[in-house]
Amino acid sequence: MSSPAEPTIVIHDSAPPPDVALKRNALGAPAIAFMVVAAAAPLTVMAGVAPLALSIGGAGAPTAYLGAGVAFAIFAVAFMTMTRATGGKGAFYSYITLGLGRSVRLGAGFLATTAYNTLQIGVYGLMAVQFQDALHRLFGVTVPWSVLALLSIIVVWFIGRRGIDVGARFLGVLLTLETGVLLVLAIAVLVDRGASRIEFSSFTPSVATAPGMGAILAFAFAAFMGFESTALYRSEARDPDRTIPRATYWAVSFMAVAYCFIVWSVVQAFGAAQIQQQATSDVSGLFFSAMSTYVGTWAADVMSVLIVTSALASQLAFHNAINRYTYSLARDGVLPSFLDHTHPVHKSPSRAGDVQTVLAVIVVGGFALAGADPYRQLLLLVNTPGVVGIIGLQVLTSVAVVVYFVRKRRVGRELVGVVAGIVATVVLGGAFVVLTKNIVLLTNAGPATNTVLLGVVGVVLVAGMVTAQYLRVRRPRTYAQIGGLYDDPAAAAER
């Protein structure tokens, strides 16, 4: 039996009313790139997570970050080919819209919102621990992690509410500082010629394919989380057809090169033969030890402060991304219309920000009241569905690109994008399988817990698809709007 035809509903695009519109022409390519690189939190990823990759993969770890960067660069080519066709403001949600059907796309919208929320809220645990360590290191005082997490949530809410241009400038300063301290460490190591001499064994085939290298792809791919959110700022970008692709390519290129270079320099700091053992014995202090040895104790103190601001920058960037996904879903009528209104002065999606802040307080407060460990439980357990969900959405988007252009018979005109979509589907699909098989590395939990965490991704995706079918029958006009393809002439032409 054939499925019933999709309802024919004509949607007329128009400029959104003033109390709904976001701030126009507020962001250039550099500002958007700052936003998405800050979301990845380079200093936090390097000092807090890279030692785990080094402890498993040893001297070959730098190639994992470079390989992940190449994979995401290919995905970015496919991802950006859809910008001309969709004009959507919901990134994954919009880009899956024209390829895989409304049921899958609403599932993608639900999953994207959930994934970004889990990524952001979980990091409050890591940020609180880093804040604790910095206060103890510098002043010898100990403050409960829950108090520091709550303070962080308030700061993120306040800055996010002030508008996207204010947030972008703030993130630009913090990103410059955290990148600067990493470069100081790398340059100091190279000037001193490392532990013995500078060498490049990390990039030889035997080291790059050594046992454990497949497993650390989980850490390498997780280090790029958030780069794809460039598309969420389309409404607020200047000349978005040029700005969004530039920001995306800049962000991926910067992270791939920077991560590989910094991790390689730390290998030189301890020596290729000793780095795995050193990282295993001192996971939390590896970068601080290198900084104290090659630059000075004062620099390690500075880095302890900048790790906190790095996490803060990441939280603000993800907060902005979450709010725009929520705003997009509300604009389409899937979420309550209360959430699609913007601040009367700052033009930020402030109501969505309020709801996201309340959710963060509830989750963090629940873990605190339960006496949970902020790192091993709040961070690792809450973050994991986000990492898995985002990579899963990237696979779906890659497939959507190929399906869309094949169906539209535009393969010849968009051959580069189609080929990139096919390659990204294979590569990211393989990474998704590797990640799920090695999920214990991200969670440090038992099989039952890991099954539940992976199951969350599937449940949310299916819930979105079921909701779409309900809307198809009960609210066909809302169903026809699914995809974030509003007030954009290009989107109307392709709908």
From TrEMBL:
Compartment(s) of residence: Cell membrane
TM stretches of this protein: 32-57, 63-83, 104-126, 138-159, 171-191, 203-227, 248-275, 295-318, 357-375, 387-406, 418-440, 452-471
Main location: membrane
Protein topology in the membrane: Multi-pass membrane protein
MF term (GO), any: transmembrane transporter activity
PANTHER family: AMINO ACID PERMEASE, AMINO ACID TRANSPORTER-RELATED
Gene Ontology cellular-component terms listed: plasma membrane
The protein's name: Amino acid/polyamine/organocation transporter, APC superfamily
Record key words, sorted: Cell membrane, Membrane, Transmembrane, Transmembrane helix
InterPro entries membership: AA/rel_permease1, APC_superfamily
Pfam families cross-referenced by the UniProt entry: AA_permease_2
